[in-house]
Fold this protein.
Amino acid sequence: MGYRSYLYLRKTGRNLYLFEANNSLPFFWIALIDKTILKNYFQDWQKSIADQEAGSQQKFEQFSELNPNSISLSDQALNINSSKSRIFLQKHFPETIPLFDDFITCIKAQFETDDKLEIDITQLSAFYNSLNNFYNIIEKELNAIEEDNPADIKFLVIEDLIGQGTGFAMSENKEFSSFLSYQKELKNRKTAVVIVEKQKFNKKSLTIAIILFLLCPAFSIIAYKMYKGEGLTAMIALIGILNLGFYCFSIWSLNKEINNFLKKRT
């Protein structure tokens, strides 16, 4: 099943779940927060854990009820941080902009007065050795945005802008699922082709293939002499089948290495 994380709007009396992710925190979600929000969140959560360890279960439960294990953002924070992150993406990852813009538009369209945008990391944070370790990893990502250093970005995967960008649109967010940018990236994700490294000529493999090919007639002669002397037995039949297999394998290997050699010369 993996560790799930969720992006949702906390509304009066209910939560509107927009996106979910599995075993990761999509980069577009990270792009909505800043180091101050991150620091405040972790300080509060660490204090609640300390209360629990100190035996103050009541304080811990009160905190948990009012502050679920999620990073909370206001409408204003969303506007400021998304604008800052968009500049970074436009400069270094321009191919992400259509999807990022639709992602932000989708969230803003459903924001109402007193709503809070929540990034639920309850399950995901448990994947790390400690809360501090998780904090440091996310902080490094925010530092990369702030310091304009794309080389340090770890959570953004251009080849998968659904799983590592927006997250997957949930059933309550069907409108976003119909956006052309989302459909395009979803299609790219499903039809992604693994690039296989070009085959190279291997002299050692060619030598082995030649030796096997030369040995095959010797085994054929042995099998024939055994057949003449003993008739067809299970052992002789097995030797014959294996001999035929070695013929096929050695010929296939010879053909592959010769083709690789010819490609190398052209």
